[in-house]
Design a protein that fits this description.
With 426 residues, the protein is of the alpha/beta class. The protein has helices at 18-29, 31-38, 52-59, 69-74, 91-100, 110-126, 143-150, 165-177, 181-190, 199-202, 205-219, 238-246, 308-323, 358-370, 394-404; strands at residues 7-14, 40-48, 65-66, 80-83, 104-107, 131-132, 156-162, 249-260, 263-274, 286-293, 297-304, 338-339, 346-354, 375-381, 384-389, 392-393, 415-420. The strands form 2 sheets. Strands 7, 8, 9, 10, 11, 12, 13, 14, 15, 16 and 17 form an 11-stranded mixed β-sheet that branches. Helix 1 packs across helix 13 (308-323), helix 5 (91-100) packs parallel to helix 6 and helix 8 (165-177) packs across helix 9.
């Protein structure tokens, strides 16, 4: 047979942390298989990273390793740039520079794409090259490929997922070992599931970056990151988790993108999920994404959402696509999207209300009646009242809360969680 190994492609690798090393290892480990699938031989021709001496000792003296991103862009042996350094700069300048010099880019940088994706995708288009970003969402799970290729005949109606491993690990530990949030966070940090500064994860911003990218892809709109619609898990207490269990639910940090009659909802918040739903069983640092479409119906994607080799798996799949000339469909901003303010959404709500006396709690209950808010389940212990409402509009709930906030002797802020009802059971 004729030799399909004609193509030799040089890779410039920016970032040599956990993911960068994972890419280096998987390329070495699966080299013949990758070459056969790509119809090309790949070799790393240049590495830039924060600690060049550390990387150099691992890769030997044959590959140039340094700290200067310009040198990587200008290296004539580099055909494709892989960016896994994270952060906004120098990653953004590196990516734009690579695209401008006619090199395609593969990135795992969800924060950068969520904030500057429109500029980066436009730049790629102008210079006739591509940006691939499978690894930026849900680690090794091929969710972007599924949306872009496998489901391309469908109108996508909703995406609901657990796409941050750190917070899922913390919530799983709180539920399984009856821990407080600070206790569970400390264990997650000791085990390497949470960073020393976990703000991005625990405040819901990392999941927010990812769902922003999925929404733009699913609904064919510009990338539009709205941090005001992202909420984290720092306020979740063991009492909340116990109440959720009592109504047959688990609390999960969900990232949600829905097309509601042409208006888009895109948000992240801790949510009660029925225990007979797939997402309630995504535990530890794993990720799971539920997609509802008009032809296939419901489908579910599960796997490792982070880590060196799982992420490398997605990066190298993009590399193979790039070598084969499979151009990704970029989010084509055909229309400015109309993003729905959350107050228009209808949902069931869980509230935890703590008052200084039982009389004060009775007053709180009267307000619920005044706003005609129907209650599905409630529990009282001491001066604490926990309630699950039937479905109501968010603006009704907001009116109630602003009235309750006027009351003395009631703990503020009042804890509120939504309950998500999806059809995907197990």
């Amino acid at each position: 047979g004729k030799n399909i190994m004609g193509k030799k492609l040089g890779i410039g690798l920016a970032g040599f942390g956990v993911v960068g090393r994972g890419i280096y290892e998987v390329l070495a480990e699966n080299s013949p298989l990758i070459a056969a699938r790509a119809g090309a031989d790949f070799s790393i021709q240049h590495i830039v990273c924060r600690h060049p001496e550390r990387a150099q000792s691992l890769v030997g003296s044959t590959i140039p390793v340094g700290g200067d991103t310009r040198a990587l862009i200008e290296n004539p042996n580099v055909d494709i740039v892989i960016e896994v350094m994270g952060g906004i700069e120098p990653a953004k300048s590196l990516i734009l520079g690579a695209l401008e010099s006619g090199k395609s880019v593969i990135t795992a940088n969800k924060a950068l794409l969520a904030l500057h994706g429109n500029e980066i995708f436009d730049c790629a288009k102008n210079f006739g090259v591509n940006v691939y970003y499978e690894a930026s969402v849900a680690g090794g799970i091929p969710i972007i490929k599924a949306l872009r290729e496998g489901l391309s005949a469908n109108r996508i109606e909703s995406i609901v997922g657990i796409i941050n491993g750190t917070t899922n690990y913390i919530l799983s530990a709180m539920r399984d070992s009856a821990l407080t949030f600070p206790q569970a966070l400390k264990i997650a940090q000791e085990k390497g599931y949470a960073e020393a500064d976990p703000t991005f994860d625990i405040e819901g911003l990392d999941a927010g970056h990812k769902i922003t990218l999925l929404a733009s892809l699913a609904f064919n709109t510009p990338v539009c990151f709205m941090p005001e619609n992202m909420e984290g898990i720092t306020q979740i207490s063991p009492e909340d988790i116990a109440f959720a269990q009592s109504v047959g639910c688990s609390i999960k940090l969900l990232a949600i993108a829905k097309n509601l009659n042409g208006q888009i909802q895109c948000c992240v918040h801790p949510t009660l999920v029925d225990n007979d739903n797939f997402l309630a069983h995504v535990n530890g640092a794993m990720n799971g994404v539920f997609v509802q479409t008009n032809a296939l119906g419901p489908s579910f994607y599960y796997g490792a959402g982070a880590g060196g080799k799982p992420t490398a798996s997605a990066v190298i799949a993009d590399l193979i696509d790039c070598a084969r000339g499979n151009a990704p469909i970029q989010p084509a901003p055909t229309t400015e999207a109309f993003y729905l303010p959350p107050k228009e959404i209808q949902s069931q709500y869980y509230l935890r209300l703590t008052a200084s006396s039982n009389e004060q709690l009775q007053r709180v209950q009267n307000y619920f009646e005044g706003f005609a808010i129907p209650i599905e389940k409630e529990t009282r212990s001491n001066q604490c009242w926990m309630v699950l409402t039937k479905p109501i509009k968010e603006n009704t709930l907001q009116s109630l809360i602003s009235e309750l906030n006027q009351l003395e002797d009631l703990d503020k802020p009042i804890k509120v969680l939504r309950k998500e009802s999806m059809l995907m059971g197990i």
